[in-house]
């Protein structure tokens, strides 16, 4: 069993679709339920539901066949009747209608589903089937009567409704949507009323017609008997009417069976051919074609309802709401080009980036720039340990140093201080080793001098390459006009 989803507040009902009353029971005699006039208790059967409200079964029957039933057209609702229509402003299409029969405890605004706008769909009149958003006033306000609905006009099929031609009138009926009605409209166990019980009654009728053995009888009415009692039986001879059929070999207790076909005899009107059956009616090819056509119409109506819903939502948004929606979307998804903006993800430029003055970065990453301000500059393969690549890096003292393999100077080179770390040539009779150090302190001993070398001058750690037996000599270079010891 599956009910409708309209006027269902899932947070309160704990289900998205209407279900049957849980662990409920009701009697049905084949024509009437226990709370209806004409109910026959002697021929009635009890029907019960499960503990979840998903199925209904006969309490006495051993019939084990299963069947599914769609009851999506059943949902909590109140069919109201209009007592008065007020034209507030014809030019602006402002119309109100009043229903004084609304109970005191049914304030639609109090039962509005969160995030939804209350709407009405008219069930009769010029606006039958049309849905409008409304503003409901339960109590009198500003010299206006209570139980009043203010209709929000909208464009339907190119016409702004309601208007003088398409407007509600007194006695028209309507249903309110987008609100969860009180429990009495869903399930009233004492009176067995409400949408859940309505769905259960439909399911029981559906089950009753299918749980018994099916029969079909064709016969001719006895003309002598019929002529004597014609005034009594002529009103009962109608397609769809029930006949109590009894037969000691078939149904001793009697079986309510439906008249499905009547063929009148022109020459003998008191002896018509009658077909009786309790088999549920099935549609033929024409019914299937009509079903397809109905499905097409239903799809078109659903599309139209969706379009009208979108128009209503956009129409009721004020300027601030529209701006907020646009701002929330653009802030997260679009980059602005007229104000500073920040990209939250990686951006790939397939053709590069162009700057003023024919400057920029092409698609291969080659840059053409005027001034570049950097903290460091190094090649991809720069490594101090392996002495590969090149780099301009910042030292611990805050100054910068250049690490590179070879330097070719085509012009003048000026050094404030130059330290030679290695001599690797042979000149005359003197061979120099690769040793070189800077003396920071000298101590005079008895037969020698003890020299202390710099191990780290703050720029580069000094490697001790001296060996026993090496001799050292001092060296002076003239770098500018003054003598500088190196």
Textual characterization of the structure:
- There is one protein chain.
- The radius of gyration is 49 Å and the shape is elongated.
- The longest helix is centred in the middle third of the chain and has 31 residues.
- The strands form 10 sheets. A 7-stranded antiparallel β-sheet has the order 6-14-9-10-11-8-7, with helices on one face.
- A hairpin with a 2-residue loop joins strand 12 and strand 13.
- It has 6 domains: 100 residues, no CATH class; 101 residues, Beta Barrel (Elongation Factor Tu (Ef-tu), domain 3); 62 residues, no CATH class; 34 residues; 50 residues, no CATH class; 60 residues, no CATH class.
- 16% of the residues lie in helices and 26% in strands.
- It is of the alpha+beta class and 486 residues long.
Strand and helix map with partners:
Blueprint: E1 2-3, H1 10-13, E2 25-28, E3 45-49, E4 56-58, E5 70-71, E6 79-81, E7 84-89, E8 94-98, E9 119-122, E10 131-137, E11 148-151, E12 154-156, E13 159-161, E14 173-177, H2 195-211, E15 216-220, H3 223-228, H4 230-233, E16 242-247, E17 251-263, E18 273-277, H5 285-315, H6 319-333, E19 353-355, E20 359-361, E21 367-368, E22 377-378, E23 391-394, E24 400-403, E25 426-427, E26 430-431, E27 439-444, E28 449-453, E29 476-478, E30 483-485
Parallel strand pairs: 1-5
Antiparallel strand pairs: 2-3, 3-4, 6-14, 7-8, 8-11, 9-10, 9-14, 10-11, 12-13, 15-18, 16-17, 17-18, 19-20, 20-21, 22-23, 23-24, 25-26, 27-28, 29-30
Structural class: alpha+beta
Portion of residues in beta strands equals: 25-35%
Total count of helical runs of at least 4 residues: 6
> What is the C-alpha radius of gyration, as a whole number of Å?
49 Å
CATH class of the largest domain: Mainly Beta
Major sheet: arrangement of strands: 6-14-9-10-11-8-7
- Helix-residue proportion: 10-25%
Distance between the termini: 101 Å
Number of strand elements: 30
CATH topology of the largest domain: Elongation Factor Tu (Ef-tu), domain 3
Mean pLDDT: 82
Sheet having the most strands: 7 strands, antiparallel
Task: Please tell me the CATH architecture of the largest domain by its name.
Answer: Beta Barrel
